[in-house]
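Annotated sample (chain length 82).
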Amino acid sequence: MTDATSVAADQLKSIIERIERLEEDRKAIADDIKEVYGEAKANGFDAAILRKIVSLRKKPAAERAEEDSILELYLQALGMEA
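Output written by the structure step:
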């Protein structure tokens, strides 16, 4: 291999290894989150609703309001008024 090829191969290997470590970290975090939801469920909370709340808290208030309006409109169109 030439020096340039060797450097590129080393860089590629380093990038792949970093991605692999991050993937492992992500799996560990996902397992921790799953455990917290399980704990919440054991304490009588609805995990699906908790997931929805976490999702909603990530969004700006204006975006949530717009989605709520559209949802209400669609439900009305289907005769499923809330």
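Annotation: The chain is about 85% helix and 0% strand.
Annotation: The chain has a mean pLDDT of 95.
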